[in-house]
């Protein structure tokens, strides 16, 4: 390394002579940071999304590579959030990539003390059977005066408010058609 | 707002930079208070007294925006001479029926219209939460009413309001709320000075406001102020609800709520809605003004979307298949029914009631008494593991080997692993693109419900039972894609938007809805989100490329309108109230309404339009009736019907309070929904004895770093690290009184539970001087539970179950408790401690909570009631409580 290169390597020299007098940008950059590439630059794609926490509805850009989420950032185009995210929105990459997430169906038999494994298809089938049985056991055709009721009070549901509109639509449509009336949501709470 | 909606708060700071004065009212000093111009500490549960004080200040000093008030509100309307106020009846309005704890609304009506209401004091509306329905539909009111434009008539709304709030003086505000008079006057002055022709003021509330036994009336009081000051329908004005979840607005619009169908159509009631025609007429009120006049088309189109080809005009579009309500089927009634063994199966879809709902112990004991439970979530939350890891395991109330509930845990897809729309707090739908596939067995709710429906239909294919027709004839053929056969969210959104049945063409506006079965619409208020066959919610035109209204970002219902009732931003002649506050106005040359937003008015109806006598529906709205969903086109300062606990807000103490109501003999809301169940013991309040057993007021709210029941935050390392432990904030004065050490432990006791927390001694909380005594308040975050990276006791365990009568939302922002130094006992000793408090406070399992606490009724039934309850209604009411 020549003397000149050595001196030019000093951040203070670059700060005094370069375009970054406050030393917050190029002047402060090390060789190592000059070599780094942002995950956002190498992503396969970016999905325009929305923060899943509160109802402000901050815009998110979800960067992904090889089928995995690599970064989530605020969307600077959003007129709501102008690119900002709060601590929760900023942590949403940790949320979706968390190793604590359950990715397998878990099943607890009556009176059991531990979880068991269960195939998703089998679980779906078992749940369908239980719905039909509960419905048959508790079905009410008419009230005391013969007026229609068409319902079961043997089934309840409580949904969160991070469900999509499309999901809520199908939930309400299916439960209504099966006569399940006791369908509730965080919106009541 | 800075704590719980931080990014939204940037706009408050923008306004402050431009000269707005920011006031923050909260029991606890927060980051919002730190950034506000003035902070007002308040005793939890007394907001109506504070806001009522502002109403009085406006009326006494005649500071209302008189032109706006005369033209756009019911201030001049004359009310029935049968009406008696809380001022006359010691905290009750006329028409109260102590047997049912509800009101007959006849005497509340406008003069000459006493027969107008159907609400007859049976409590039925409360049980079916139809207050929520009135909130959007309005009760029937006549288009023509007797008015006094001078506002002098003693029975005009303006004068009634003035008398009603006359005692809400600055001294009374100080006495009830603990807010010093000069701080109150500073607020009242700033609010009124910043309203009127040239200026507008905004009221922003967090939905903790709804979590009170008088929650709806809190918001009503805010509406009265904003209407008197002319702040509704105008830029920079309004009432802004900060809702707490990404799509909680969507969950109300396309409700998964027992009493509603999409687009605020009511779920039918077995007695009131025997036929399609009766059901529809109860929504549209034939002859009534306003846009609900078209509801026959909305209702027919919904049923057409549900049952497709099987829905025909001949079979009333399948109306007969809809399940019928008979009373209260809300989530708290359900939980008590679970404890009583009446419910077989329960679905929890991204919801964690073991931590997030009031009375956690009741929630968990309910879950432990089911045949089966399905939990769909990202993580193993407390509601999935109650049978092996809950406080009741330690006390021996749940024994795994004896707990029969079969539990299915199905992992859910996250927000980046599926596509679809969220509706944020200002009614704006934003479409999310999918980034990656969900891992392992994780699936979207869309997948789960579509395939559940498919399997159910396959299993029933051979059924001939009438009850199965509704499932078999359901329109359920959504296209699917990918290895997991994921249904198309866009196809569902198209159905929600609605389409022409013959051609499949997406509809552009709900005005295209037909009542003959030729249109199908899943949620009429969302019609237009797929206008021109384009997913409008996916629009992402940068804010740099459009004006400040940003109409091309996402899509807001209805009709992409960003400010509701914006016709009111122009004067009766259609001219902007001022150049500064110009928003939507009439362009006489073009012959249409125009402006920055989509006008909330028929585009070519001129301001001078006057309807013919016999008009109804939208055609009956005059050119200067801006409140187009109301039955008279006016904003209501006084609600002759539709709000079940009174035509005007009244200060009542919370269901649990250490204080006697300083304003009336009536202590708490006389119409609140109570549940007398052995598990639901409510702490005594004055005038009952023993309230001193629970001398302190507690309130709960959010931390910036956590989210509701913690399922999406106590599981995230960064957030868990930022707020790692359950704590309770106490003032230095209370710490000294009880002997609590900073960073030490304390336990809190209510009539339901004991929880422990680390102590944070801070002057963010301050003892309040109210009604001649000192009230101490403590604050807790409600995010903690027994699962996740960081754990702690749940604050919601402390609450009992008492609900607002209009919407059946629980009072979970205020309660009473005791606080002691040290950790709580464990195991059965914990139950002994609660039992000890229950004994000392006189709370046997069969205790009746006194509802009427004034002797104004003098043993008579129904003070001022104009109609006796019919035997039929009485019988129906009895059955409703079954
Ligand atoms: S980033 Fe924060 S403020 Fe924005 S939506 Fe998410 S939780 Fe709300």
From TrEMBL, chain A:
An example Gene Ontology molecular-function term: molybdenum ion binding
SMART domains attached to this UniProt entry: Molybdop_Fe4S4 (SM00926)
Listed Gene3D superfamilies: 3.40.50.740, ADC-like domains
Residue ranges annotated for the 4Fe-4S Mo/W bis-MGD-type domain, each copy included: 44-100
Cofactors demanded by this protein: [4Fe-4S] cluster
Family statement drawn from the similarity comment of this UniProt entry: Belongs to the prokaryotic molybdopterin-containing oxidoreductase family.
Name the UniProt record assigns to this protein: Formate dehydrogenase major subunit
Organism: Micromonospora humi
Automatic annotation (TrEMBL), chain B:
Subcellular location(s) per record: Cell envelope
Domain named Molybdopterin oxidoreductase: residues: 3-380, 410-452
Gene Ontology molecular function: 4 iron, 4 sulfur cluster binding; electron transfer activity; molybdenum ion binding; molybdopterin cofactor binding; oxidoreductase activity
Gene3D superfamilies per UniProt: 2.40.40.20, 3.40.50.740, Dimethylsulfoxide Reductase, domain 2 (3.40.228.10)
Keywords recorded for this protein, A-Z: 4Fe-4S, Iron, Iron-sulfur, Metal-binding, Oxidoreductase
Family annotation (InterPro entries): Asp_de-COase-like_dom_sf, Formate_DH_Act, MoPterin_dinucl-bd_dom, Mopterin_OxRdtase
Gene Ontology cellular-component terms listed: cell envelope
Pfam family, one: Molybdopterin
Signal sequence residues: none
Superkingdom in the source lineage: Bacteria
GO biological process terms on file: anaerobic respiration
Biased composition (Basic and acidic residues): 122-138
Cofactor requirements of the protein: [4Fe-4S] cluster
Domain Molybdopterin dinucleotide-binding, residue spans: 699-807
Region feature Disordered, mapped onto this chain: 115-148, 602-623, 856-882
PANTHER family: FORMATE DEHYDROGENASE-O MAJOR SUBUNIT, TUNGSTEN-CONTAINING FORMYLMETHANOFURAN DEHYDROGENASE 2 SUBUNIT B
Family classification: Belongs to the prokaryotic molybdopterin-containing oxidoreductase family.
NCBIfam families reported for this sequence: formate_DH_Act
Record's protein name: Formate dehydrogenase major subunit
């Amino acid at each position: 390394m020549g003397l000149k290169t050595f001196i030019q390597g000093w951040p203070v020299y670059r700060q005094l002579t370069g375009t970054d007098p406050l030393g917050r940008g190029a002047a402060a950059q090390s060789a190592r940071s000059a070599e780094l590439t942002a995950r956002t630059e190498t992503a396969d794609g970016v999905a325009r999304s929305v923060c899943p926490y509160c109802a402000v509805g901050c815009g998110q850009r979800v960067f992904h590579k090889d089928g995995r989420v690599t970064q989530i950032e605020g969307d600077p185009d959003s007129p709501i959030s102008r690119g900002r995210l709060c601590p929760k929105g900023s942590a949403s990459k940790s949320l979706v990539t968390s190793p604590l997430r359950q990715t397998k169906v878990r099943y607890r038999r009556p009176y059991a003390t531990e979880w068991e494994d269960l195939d998703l298809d089998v679980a779906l089938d078992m749940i369908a059977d239980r719905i039909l049985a509960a419905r048959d056991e508790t079905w009410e055709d008419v009230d005391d005066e013969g007026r229609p009721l068409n319902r079961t009070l043997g089934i309840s549901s409580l949904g969160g408010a991070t469900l999509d509109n499309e999901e809520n639509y199908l939930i309400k449509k299916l439960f209504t058609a099966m006569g399940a009336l006791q369908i509730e949501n965080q919106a009541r709470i | 707002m800075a704590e719980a909606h931080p990014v939204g708060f940037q706009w408050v700071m923008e306004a402050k930079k431009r000269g707005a004065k920011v006031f923050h009212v909260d029991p606890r000093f927060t980051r919002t208070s730190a950034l506000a111009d003035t902070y007002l500490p308040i005793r939890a549960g007394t907001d109506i007294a504070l806001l009522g004080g502002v109403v009085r200040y406006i009326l006494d000093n005649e500071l209302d925006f008189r032109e706006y008030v005369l033209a756009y509100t019911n201030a001049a309307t004359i009310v029935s001479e049968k009406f008696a106020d809380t001022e006359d009846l010691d905290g009750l309005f006329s028409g109260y029926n102590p047997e049912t704890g509800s009101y007959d609304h006849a005497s509340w009506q406008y003069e000459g219209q006493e027969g107008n209401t159907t609400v007859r004091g049976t409590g039925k509306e409360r049980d079916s939460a139809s207050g929520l329905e009135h909130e959007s539909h309005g009760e029937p009111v006549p288009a023509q009413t007797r008015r006094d434009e001078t506002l002098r008539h003693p029975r005009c709304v303006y004068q009634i309001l003035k008398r009603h709030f006359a005692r809400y003086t600055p001294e009374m505000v100080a006495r009830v709320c603990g807010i010093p008079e000069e701080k109150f006057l500073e607020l009242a002055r700033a609010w009124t000075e910043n309203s009127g022709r040239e200026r507008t003021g905004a009221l922003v509330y967090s939905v903790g406001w709804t979590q009170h036994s008088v929650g709806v009336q809190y918001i009503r009081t805010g509406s009265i102020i904003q209407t008197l000051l002319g702040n509704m329908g105008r830029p920079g004005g309004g009432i802004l609800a900060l809702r707490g979840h990404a799509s909680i607005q969507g969950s109300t619009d396309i409700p998964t709520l027992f009493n509603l169908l999409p687009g605020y159509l009511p779920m039918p009631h077995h007695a009131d809605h025997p036929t399609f025609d009766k059901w529809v007429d109860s929504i549209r009120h034939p002859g009534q003004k306003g846009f609900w006049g078209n509801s026959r088309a909305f209702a027919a189109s919904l049923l057409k979307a549900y049952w497709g080809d099987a829905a025909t005009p001949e079979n009333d579009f399948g109306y007969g298949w809809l399940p019928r309500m008979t009373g209260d089927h809300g989530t708290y009634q359900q939980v008590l029914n679970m404890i009583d063994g009446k419910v077989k199966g329960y679905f929890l879809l991204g919801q964690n009631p073991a931590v997030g709902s009031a009375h956690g112990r009741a929630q968990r004991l309910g879950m432990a008494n089911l045949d089966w439970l399905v939990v769909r979530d990202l993580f193993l939350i407390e509601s999935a593991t109650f049978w092996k890891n809950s406080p009741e395991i330690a006390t021996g109330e749940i024994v795994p080997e004896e707990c029969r509930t079969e539990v299915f845990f199905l992992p859910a897809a996250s927000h980046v692993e599926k596509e679809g729309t969220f509706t944020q707090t200002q009614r704006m739908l934003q479409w999310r693109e999918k980034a990656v596939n969900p891992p392992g067995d994780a699936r979207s709710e869309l997948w789960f419900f579509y395939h559940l429906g498919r399997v159910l239909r396959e299993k029933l294919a051979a059924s001939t039972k009438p009850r199965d027709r509704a499932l078999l004839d359901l329109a359920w053929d959504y296209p699917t894609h990918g290895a997991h056969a994921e249904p198309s969210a866009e196809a569902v959104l198209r159905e929600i938007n609605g389409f022409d049945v013959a051609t499949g063409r997406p509809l552009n506006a709900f005005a295209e809805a037909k009542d003959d079965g030729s249109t199908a619409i899943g949620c009429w208020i969302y019609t237009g989100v797929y206008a021109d066959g384009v997913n409008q919610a996916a629009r992402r035109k940068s804010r740099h490329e459009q004006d400040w209204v940003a109409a091309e970002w996402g899509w807001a219902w209805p009709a992409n309108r960003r400010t509701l009732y914006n016709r009111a931003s122009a004067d009766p002649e259609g001219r902007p109230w001022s150049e500064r506050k110009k928003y939507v106005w009439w362009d006489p040359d073009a012959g249409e309404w125009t402006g920055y937003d989509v006008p909330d008015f028929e585009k070519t109806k001129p301001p001078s339009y006057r309807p013919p006598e016999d008009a109804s529906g939208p055609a009956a709205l005059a050119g200067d009736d801006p409140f187009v969903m109301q039955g008279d086109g006016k904003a209501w300062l006084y609600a002759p019907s539709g709000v079940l606990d009174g035509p005007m807000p009244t200060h009542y103490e919370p269901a649990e309070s250490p204080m006697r109501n300083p304003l009336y003999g009536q202590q708490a809301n006389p119409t609140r929904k109570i549940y007398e169940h052995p598990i639901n013991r409510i702490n005594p309040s004055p005038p009952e004895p023993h309230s001193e057993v629970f001398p302190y007021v507690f309130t709960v709210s959010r931390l910036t770093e956590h989210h509701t029941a913690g399922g999406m935050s106590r599981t995230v390392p960064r957030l868990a690290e930022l707020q790692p432990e359950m704590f309770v904030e106490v003032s230095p004065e209370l710490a000294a009184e009880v002997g609590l050490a900073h960073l030490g432990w304390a336990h809190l006791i209510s009539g339901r539970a004991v929880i422990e927390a680390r102590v944070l001694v801070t002057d963010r909380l301050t003892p309040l001087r109210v009604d001649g005594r000192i009230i101490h308040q403590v604050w807790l975050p409600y995010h903690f539970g027994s699962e996740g990276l960081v754990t702690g006791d749940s604050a919601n365990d402390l609450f009992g179950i008492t609900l607002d009568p209009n919407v059946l939302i629980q009072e979970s922002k205020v309660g009473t408790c005791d606080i002691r130094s040290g950790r709580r006992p464990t195991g059965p000793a914990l139950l002994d401690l609660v039992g000890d408090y229950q004994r000392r406070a006189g709370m046997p399992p069969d205790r009746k909570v006194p509802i009427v606490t004034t002797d104004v009724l003098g043993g008579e039934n129904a003070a001022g009631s104009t109609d006796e309850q019919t035997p039929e209604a009485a019988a129906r009411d009895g059955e409703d409580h079954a």
